[in-house]
Amino acid sequence: MRFRPKNVLIGLALAGSGIAISALAGANLLAIILALFAGAAAALLIVQPDQPEEEIAAADGAVPAPPSIEAGPILDAIEDPLLLVRERRVVLANAAARAVLGEHIGGADVRLAIRHPAAAERLADLGEEGGKGRIELLGLGGNERRWEMAVTRLPDRSRLVRLTDRSQMHAAEQMRTDFIANASHELRTPLATVLGFLETLLDDPDAPEGARNRFLKIMLDEATRMRQIVNDLISLSRIEAERYTLPDEPVDLIPMLREVEDTLENVVRAQMSEVRVEQLAGTAMVPGDRAQLHQLFSNLVANALKYGREGHPVTIRLEEAGAMLKVSVVDEGEGIAPEHLPRLTERFYRVDAGRSRSVGGTGLGLAIVKHIIGRHRGRLDIKSMLGKGTEVQVFLPRWRDAES
User: Which of 31, 142, 210, 252 is spaced 20 to 30 A from 91 at the CA atom?
Assistant: First the structure.
């Protein structure tokens, strides 16, 4: 298909939040397609093919006709799969459509090209209003894929079928739903415990002092846990709000890691352990947000101490890795089974929920770590071997590379 503009009229009308582009019944088909898909930057080129070129030249001061435009490359530039259908036959399919549906779809019955029962039912009706509107297609191109199919009737009675991938949007919505459900559960459990013991104490004001103190201690622990969950949720929200702002403060990790060690002194003492810092890099300066980096390494070292073996050290090793600085936090604990590793940074995901709660974990620590590293344009790797321990590697841009 070739598009040769002749007498060109441009009709753009602002309508609401978008742009409505009006077309004449005899408009060139490619021009209509471009108007439908080119968005706010588009101008509809309306061609009057019956006007001789000589008249056009006379009317326009003998201006040479512009070169012809190939339709294929233009339509291939549209990211959504796009099919032009006449009498149920696919007469044109862009590159995105061929990638999803297969290279064979040209000339095929559209109901065979889009092998989906809901799509076949919608596209079977060739009536004046048949096939119009939007529907959702589940499983097209893969079990987890979700598409929205929109059908537009064109002036020449052909139809334009557009597929829009909604998989990521659905996944994000599912993550949001799961997050709200998990957060509600995590807060409801300690709250129920606190309320239960409060009711017990109110119902029995003469309870023995030993029992009262035990109840109060449990209530304090659960309230502290709720506070930590809320604090972690607030931290996540702040980090996500700043994720597009690149930190540029020079931070020396060595003194900061000493501060982390001092902060966790009680945990170190309880585990009868120690934290060793090995500096194998020439410099430990990185561009960053100091408070967030302190939180990042506090979470990692605290995890290593809590889940490592009692009496065994936690090692923090700093090494150069090309343009990056690699900081490894290594424990000598029980290790983590391989099937759990890909999910460790999910919010509220726990390998052992009971043990995590017993040591005060909220299930948000590694999610916070992942988001902080992402904001600092770094990388996170977790390696573990059952019975040997776990090594968490953080790669951060080095300061001198950020300046150059």
Answer: 142
